[in-house]
Design brief:
Layout lengths: L12 E6 L19 H12 L5 E4 L15 H10 L5 E6 L6 H14 L4 E5 L5 H5 L8 H20 L3 E4 L4 E5 L15 E5 L3 H10 L2 E4 L4 H17 L5 E7 L1 E2 L3 H13 L3 H16 L13 H4 L11 E2 L1 H13 L4 E5 L3 H27 L1
Parallel strand pairs: 1-2, 1-12, 2-3, 3-4, 4-7, 7-8, 8-9, 9-12, 10-11
Antiparallel strand pairs: 5-6
Length: 371
């Protein structure tokens, strides 16, 4: 099968995981000079938008789990960070089943107007059963969770863009509803961008049918290309196109040896009990898929030390090595790299100063080569 066509004429975009959950981005007892507080995150957001980051993704946890004792709710901190910045686009992770979509649509529409069109949502179908059952909500089987998420997305798009919104599904219904104010609409963004992620056949199908962006866990360039092909083909059949993002944990240092030592220390100091608990939860969720292709199904212990397989993307080394690796993903059809870091303030600034300029140089050279 032919490789995906790379988006060579568009610059690679960058997002960062908002550390709005305590414990940092690795499940390790290594020192992490990062903090989940609002003041820290506000400082980080300003720094990030001035160092080449276009998006910030606020993760969502509802209960203490796997090293995350404290959590700021995703939609509220996303709005706060957008109001504290000028250009940064913020993505709030949300769970169907814990949100009524009309209520979320209203919140996001208001926040989008307040921020001049800089709100987005990441629709998370869910892997953590306890977060539903302890809140008294039903836990659906894997395929049903994705069916519900697809209806959730269709509902959001309808209510954001129609004056007499109508939707009738198995999970959600909408009758002659006119949401006002509507979100900001532009020729390139008719409504807040809708992200989703996954790996299973259910996730790929849903992504191709309804998502604007499809997030992928860390993987090799060839592993990512496989998902890009599948989702792109489904989107093509439905007369659509989808953008792609991949998760990657960035350890950029002046020498490769220094970067490798940092990665080794992260894994050596892993919180084994928390990692094994997380691994058990996500693998159980993935095993519920019909074809056993759920996220994390081939993840090893060392991969799970970073929640979304960020080490597997291989963004560890010198700025030159990391930039070259990022271009390999771009050639496979990736539009955005979702970055995690160990020491956010220092590492984000280092990224903007040393890694990003090389990425742009490589892109310019590739663009000149292909005409």
């Amino acid at each position: 099968m032919n490789a995906p066509i790379a988006p060579v004429h568009e610059p690679l975009r960058f997002a960062y995981w908002v550390p709005n959950v305590s414990g940092g981005l690795v499940v390790s007892k290594i020192e992490q000079r990062t903090d989940w507080s609002y003041d820290y995150n506000k400082q980080l957001a300003v720094l990030a938008e001035n160092n080449g980051f276009e998006y910030a993704l606020s993760q969502v946890r509802y209960i203490a789990s796997y090293g995350a004792a404290y959590q700021h709710e995703s939609t509220s901190i996303s709005l706060a960070l957008a109001l504290a910045t000028e250009r940064l686009k913020v993505i709030a992770a949300v769970h169907p089943g814990l949100w009524q979509p009309g209520v979320l649509a209203k919140l996001v529409a208001s926040a989008d107007v307040m921020t001049g069109g800089r709100l987005a949502v990441n629709v998370v179908s869910g892997w953590f059963k306890d977060e539903f059952t302890k809140l008294g909500e039903p836990w659906l089987e894997h395929g049903e969770r994705y069916r519900r998420s697809e209806e959730f997305i269709r509902y959001l798009r309808e209510i954001w863009t129609s004056e007499h919104a109508e939707y009738s599904g198995d999970f959600y219904r909408l009758h002659d509803f006119d949401l006002r104010p509507k979100p900001v609409a532009t020729p390139t963004r008719p409504h807040p961008e809708i992200f989703m992620g996954g790996n299973s056949t259910d996730a790929r199908g849903m992504g191709g049918r309804v998502a604007d962006w499809y997030f992928m866990n860390g993987n090799t360039p060839d592993g990512i290309a496989d998902q890009v092909r599948d989702v792109s083909e489904i989107a093509r059949v439905h007369g659509r196109s989808v953008n792609f993002g991949v998760n990657g944990f960035v350890v950029a240092r002046d020498t490769e040896a220094e970067a490798r030592d940092v990665l080794r220390e992260i894994i050596d100091k892993a919180d084994r009990e928390a990692v094994e608990g997380f691994g058990s939860a996500v693998k159980q969720a993935g095993q519920a898929t019909g074809d056993k292709k759920g996220m994390w199904q081939d993840s090893e212990f060392s991969d799970l030390v970073q929640y979304n397989d960020g080490f597997r993307t291989g963004l560890v080394g010198t700025p030159e090595q990391i930039a070259e690796r990022m271009l390999e993903y771009k050639k496979r059809g990736v539009h955005l790299i979702l970055c995690g870091f160990l020491h956010y303030l220092e590492d984000v600034e280092y990224f903007g100063r040393h890694v990003l300029p090389i990425v742009r140089e490589l892109e310019a050279a590739e663009l000149e080569r292909v005409g």
